[in-house]
């Protein structure tokens, strides 16, 4: 239906569930046959997600910090005061497009040097003020990867991301079988071929060709919270956390028509449209690729695939299994805790984290807590994201309370002996008389 309504020469889609591809289907014609999961399409800005993974690998190795100004690692650009994190999240205030003719339909050799991807006045907003999508920003990030790795962006991407994940049909150039890009006349069912230019310095923003099968592997990484071969779980979770309502770090926050909030990325280049999106709560992801400049609503189609599977084949929970072991001190912390009169539950998780969740409506401080080497725990997600939790003890070593970013959690609500800031009325709880 999407291919027919979108008047698209061909469409390929795939659905991922719980770490594996469960459905792939093609419609239309590519080279005289129906396309399949191995047919290449240009994926445009989905390339940005892979570029962001390369940058976060450098961060995880200690080669850079997200708060570093670009100038610290890539001197001489007009955008040197933009931070690495702001470039990843499109909050650096840079122009949306490079100067000159439409860069997606002209050869990259028209922009031979890095300075050529930025206009004379590179900033359209003060850095950090707001979200403003910037393709040149990702060209700068690609150059940053090249500078710190000592190789071309495409070579580094192949070695560090594509080869380990088995994305062998993804690369900067098309390899048969691949679709050709087309424009469809708005008022007649006729086609016009679109050029497929090498984007040169802009490659890290949108150069890649890929397949539904390969992008399904990327969806698995986004769903599973990482893959140690390419990027650790915490870094993938960080990518998918919204920095603004629209974007994380190389990952879009996509709001589906049914209200679902998905993470992934859309892509477009003349002749091609694409989307990869995941719903971690359902363990579902979907990929849609089409070879048309406009008309095919790949975002809606991707969201529909996720919705249909979620509604018609509800997720069956994994069988309950006991933990192989648990630290007795963590087990002693398990159970109810109270922030004032609000009840929360603290549970040890299988991965060594602690999970803090509200026991009834109105609790807004839920988070996961990651252990640190100094005995301090760090929140992951929610209000306490990045905040530290300390387990406070009395002189005998007994736990008195939890301090989570200065919020005190006690074993009973306003107990007379509880360590509550401001103290507790010695008369205790009472009626209205």
TrEMBL record:
<protein>
    <submittedName>
        <fullName>CubicO group peptidase (Beta-lactamase class C family)</fullName>
    </submittedName>
</protein>
<dbReference type="Pfam" id="PF00144">
    <property type="entry name" value="Beta-lactamase"/>
</dbReference>
<dbReference type="InterPro" id="IPR012338">
    <property type="entry name" value="Beta-lactam/transpept-like"/>
</dbReference>
<dbReference type="InterPro" id="IPR050491">
    <property type="entry name" value="AmpC-like"/>
</dbReference>
<dbReference type="InterPro" id="IPR056008">
    <property type="entry name" value="DUF7586"/>
</dbReference>
<dbReference type="InterPro" id="IPR001466">
    <property type="entry name" value="Beta-lactam-related"/>
</dbReference>
<feature type="domain" description="DUF7586">
    <location>
        <begin position="326"/>
        <end position="411"/>
    </location>
</feature>
<dbReference type="Pfam" id="PF24491">
    <property type="entry name" value="DUF7586"/>
</dbReference>
<feature type="domain" description="Beta-lactamase-related">
    <location>
        <begin position="5"/>
        <end position="310"/>
    </location>
</feature>
